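Good morning C.,

I know you're traveling, so I'll keep this short. The sequence:
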Amino acid sequence: MVFPYRQVSSEIRRPVIPVILKNRFPLPEGSGSLIFAQDSLHLRLKSRSFSAQNKSKFVLYSGLIDSGADYCIFNIQIAKELDIPLQSKKISLKGIGREKVTGYLGKVEISINGLNYDLTAIFAEMEEFGHGILGQKGFFDRFDVKLSYQKQTLEIKPATKES
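The tokens, ready to paste straight into the viewer:
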């Protein structure tokens, strides 16, 4: 799968790919919605109803490929919108900024270009990002990744044991 880098400002392009996040558990009969997480400076969620035969919720979202991140991290609003149960134990995150961010572990189904799998991610307050983070556990442990800054492309392949 090859993806172009995404323009995030007039001068910056990043390896950001589209993903679908889904609650792993079916919802009660007659419920369901589609939630759009727009990539802008602020996360905006919009709900739309769809067929009651598909008893689940999902989010169309974006993920920044970040080899320096230990885990996959998504906005906590997504967990709330998808009714994803979160563990009560707080996890403190600290990146390049000085402020610590608190998050909670939760299981989510992710789809990348039609390839679906379950992962445990951290859900944290991160409204300033218009995308999630795809890190070592949950992304790099499942894919071989090739970044080409010169070509402004990202290639990912499902990892094999020989890789």
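Safe travels,
E.
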